[in-house]
Amino acid sequence: MGHMHEFTKGIWKENPVLRLMLGLCPTLAVSTAVDNAIGMGIAFTIVLLGSNVVISLIRGFIPKQVRIPCFIVVIATFVTIIDLSMHAFQPKLHEALGIFVPLIVVNCIVLGRAEAFASRNSVFASILDALGMGVGFTLALFVLAFVRELLGTGMVTLFGHAIVSRPLLQPAIVMILPPGAFVTLGLMMALMNKIGEKRT
Amino acid sequence: MQNTARLVVVLVTICVVASGSLAFVNSLTAERIQINEEKETQRLYGEALAGLGRTVELSEPRQVGNLVCYEGSVNGEPVGTAFIVTTNKGYGPPIEIIVAVDAAGDRLAGVRIKKHQETPGLGANIVKVRPDEDEPWFLRQFKDLTSDRILLKPAGEIDAITAATISSRAVVDAVREGFEEFARARSELAGAQ
């Protein structure tokens, strides 16, 4: 149980987007299409994993007063290294995920997990935490993007394959614009709170 | 006091290690990134000039007016001229667009985006490929247009991207202006000879 909890908490109980309300800016921006949601989710998980491991490794070495600048330097370095390596050795992947990488630097979930978790826990626990948060973030983005793409364009495509190919309803363009993101996200949060209420 | 010194030492150490590792990774990857980008640019030139899946030979670059032009040929047959234009009217850093004009010089052979950072899901749809298709639908609309038709509908022939009119217009305007500049420079060149 003990260790498993570090993984599962990110998916539901402490879901970064829907519970901790972190990283809302990139969430709202890239959830216009399912492709983008998955791309962002994967890139984000890789970065969070790396940053959590590094921060956890050097946690004994960082004085409290300067921990935030230290975390930011570590995260920014890590993001840039991943970006450069991907660009050089996996150009196809970089083409697909490249536009999301700069967005991750400003994603406060990474900094939030460094501060709240990785700087206080072992490397192993931090890995589980990063994976759980990554899955939770990706799932939240996926659901949000699925709803928005379905209602906003009438169809859903995943990596060039149509999942829902015939428009079920008249597409409502507002759904792929910012208001659609806020409305959908708000409804998702309300739903999570409702379900959470019943459980306790 | 001693404590303050420690803070400075730790932060400086971390920054030095970070810059060191960045410099190291950069030195490992810079060359490959450049090679990859050049390969990608060559491919895009080919696609713009002759469509998908055809091998296009590119000439040495040639200056036409302010444009650096490449002549393309397939099996020795000239297929047109391609050049790069940039626009800063999009939503991000400048968009770099490859414009290819056919061999006669009066119609577009094709358009490709070399580099852009438009908003994912909105402006980035200038390069979106629809399911079961093999090239971006927005860019395909430019093929075979004469310069006076390169305008958004209803004035011209191009359908703008839903919710991304700014990015659509930036590309359309840049292509039209590039084409006009190319035509002007070419006729001046022909007049001078």
Model description:
The complex is a heterodimer of chains A (200) and B (193). Chain A has a two-stranded antiparallel sheet. In chain A, α1 runs parallel beside α8 (123-153), α3 packs across α4 and α3 runs parallel beside α7. The relative contact order of chain A is 0.19. The radius of gyration of chain A is 18 Å and the shape is globular. Chain A is built from 9 helices and 2 strands. The two termini of chain A are 20 Å apart. In chain A, β1 and β2 (161-164) form a beta hairpin. Chain A has one domain (2-199). With 200 residues, chain A is mainly α. Chain A has helices at 2-8, 24-30, 34-57, 67-89, 91-97, 101-105, 108-118, 123-153, 178-199, and strands at 156-158, 161-164. Chain B has 193 residues and is of the alpha+beta class. Chain B has one domain (48-192). In chain B, 42% of the residues lie in helices and 21% in strands. Chain B has helices at residues 2-50, 137-140, 165-192, and strands at 57-58, 62-64, 67-74, 77-87, 95-102, 108-115. In chain B, strands 1, 2, 3, 4, 5 and 6 form a 6-stranded antiparallel beta sheet that branches. Chain B is elongated, with a radius of gyration of 22 Å. The mean pLDDT of chain B is 89. The chains are: A mainly alpha (200), B alpha+beta (193). Chain A binds chain B through residues 29-33, 36, 40, 58, 61-63, 65-66, 69-70, 73-74, 76-77, 80-81, 84-85, 87-89, 91, 99-100, 153, 157, 160-162, 165, 173, 176-177, and chain B through 3, 6-7, 10-11, 14-15, 18, 21-22, 25-26, 28-29, 32-33, 36, 40, 117, 119-122, 124, 129-132, 162-163.
